[in-house]
Amino acid sequence: MEQGAQVVSPLGELVDIFLRRCSEKSTLEELQQLILGGYGRWGDAHALFDRIRSKTLNSIQAKNRLLEAQYAFEEICAKTLYNLTDTDAPFDPDSPYFVIPMALDLARALQISDDEIIQIVAPRELGTQS
User: Fold this and answer.
1) Is 130 within a domain?
2) pLDDT per residue over 10-34, tens digit each?
3) How many beta carbons lie within 10 A of that of residue 35, not counting itself?
4) By Cβ atoms counted within 10 A, which residue in 41, 54, 55, 66 is the most buried?
């Protein structure tokens, strides 16, 4: 299994859900391309993070709650992808732990049910009880 596939596959699914519902798609689309590009492209996530961070700061200043949530999710995904590379200068090592909370925050801002997100990050097999 490709390094990081257990992390990256759900990231890709989350990005897909948000791409269908977010009106500002530019860096989400770039994130999707990095994910689809595989391990060899994940190093590019550092530069993508920098671009997203600038957008995050602008959305905070503009008090745009939806874009704040979207860019926070994008940032944490970019950090996580970059940290899966063989880098000597990773982002905070706990970055992957924030993917789910950030995804839930964005989902709620977009009025997507928590269950839709949970099914991606912790899928239940058909026929199992909760």
Assistant:
1) no
2) 999 999 999 999 999 999 999 999 9
3) 22
4) 55
Residue 38 lies in a domain: yes
User: For every residue of the chain, which 3-state class applies, written as one string?
Assistant: CCCCHHHHHHHHHHHHHHHHHCCCCHHHHHHHHHHHHCHHHHHHHHHHHHHHHHHHHHHHHCCCHHHHHHHHHHHHHHHHHHHCCCCCCCCCCCHHHHHHHHHHHHHHHCCCCHHHHHHHHCCCCCCCCC
pLDDT in tens, 32-82: 999 999 989 999 999 999 999 999 999 999 999 999 999 999 999 999 999
Tally of structural domains, the chain:
1
Residue 128 lies in a domain: no
